[in-house]
Amino acid sequence: MSSHTAQTELSFLGKLLIEGELVCETGLHIGAGKGTLEIGGADNPVVKDAFGRPYVPGSSLRGRLRSLLEQAMGLATPKQLVYVSKRKGQEVRIHASDSPSDEICLLFGRAPGRVERVEGEALSQNTITPARLTVYDAALNLDSITAPMRESLDDELTEVKSESAIDRITSQSQARTLERVPAGASFRLRLVLDVLCEADKELIATIIQGLALLEDDTLGGGGSRGSGRVSFSGLKLTWRNAGYYKGGAETEVATAADVAGLRAVSAELAQKLEA
User: Fold this and answer.
1) Are strands 14-24 and 230-241 parallel, antiparallel or unpaired?
2) In angstroms, rounded to a whole number, what is the distance separating the alpha carbons of residues 85 and 9?
3) Nearest-CA neighbor of 218 among 14, 52, 64, 21?
4) How many Å apart are CA 214 and CA 68, to the nearest integer?
5) Count of structural domains within the chain
6) Residue-wise pLDDT tens digits, 73-132
7) Which domain holds residue 163?
C-alpha cells in the first residue's frame, strides 16, 4: 500500500514518461475480434491499424499489467473483486476498494458508486480517484521485421500458426489457425505516469513491478500454448515537471537496457523527480 491518505491533496507536479521497446520473444496474438473471415485468412486474425499494420492496443497492455499486479498483491480473490459486467459468458471482474492507499485504484482510477462484489456485500465507493497511468497504443517498428524474416512469413508482417484440438473420446482432430506477429518483432512502448502529489512518486516502483511480472507471463491470446512472451528493452524515463509545460526543460531520469536494469535503480527514481 502507498502512503496516500484521505487528506492527501492533489496538485499537478508533472509527468513521468516511460519509453522503450516491447519485443516479441515468441509469436504474439492480440485478436481483432473479427466477425467474418477472409478467404484463405486465419481463423483468428490479429488487430491491425488503418494501414494494415499490427499493433499492441494500449487497453490490452494496460489491462494485463493491472491483472498481474492484482494477482501479485493478493487482490484477485472473490472478496476483493467486483463485477464490471455480469453478462453470462462475458463476466468481467476487477479489483476495487474504497481505500485511499490502494495502489491499483490509484494507478488505474476509481469512480464513485455502488458496485457488486463477487463475494460479500456490495461495495459503496465514495472516493473519486483519477487514473495516474496512461498506456498508449504501441506501434510496430517496421524495421524489426527483417527481409529474412519476411521470406518465412505467411503475410507481409505476420505468420499463421496452425493448431489442432483433439476430441478425447473420438480422437477427431479439429484444425484451427492463429495469426501472430513473429518472434523478433518489436513495438514502440510509451507509458505516462501523472504525478499529482508527492506520494504518487511511490507508484514508479509498482509500474516497474508490473513490467517485470509481464516478462515472466504472457500478453494476448494463446499464452498457455506458446504465444505472447515479451520483453522490454531500451528503456528511458523522462521527467517533465509543471514548469516544463510553461517553457522549462525536461530531465532524463534514467536509462536501462532492460527491466532488470530499471529495477536496480528503482529506489533512487522518486528522488530525481524535482518540482
Assistant:
1) antiparallel
2) 32
3) 64
4) 7
5) 1
6) 999 999 999 998 888 888 899 999 999 999 999 999 998 888 899 999 898 888 889 999
7) 14-73+131-272
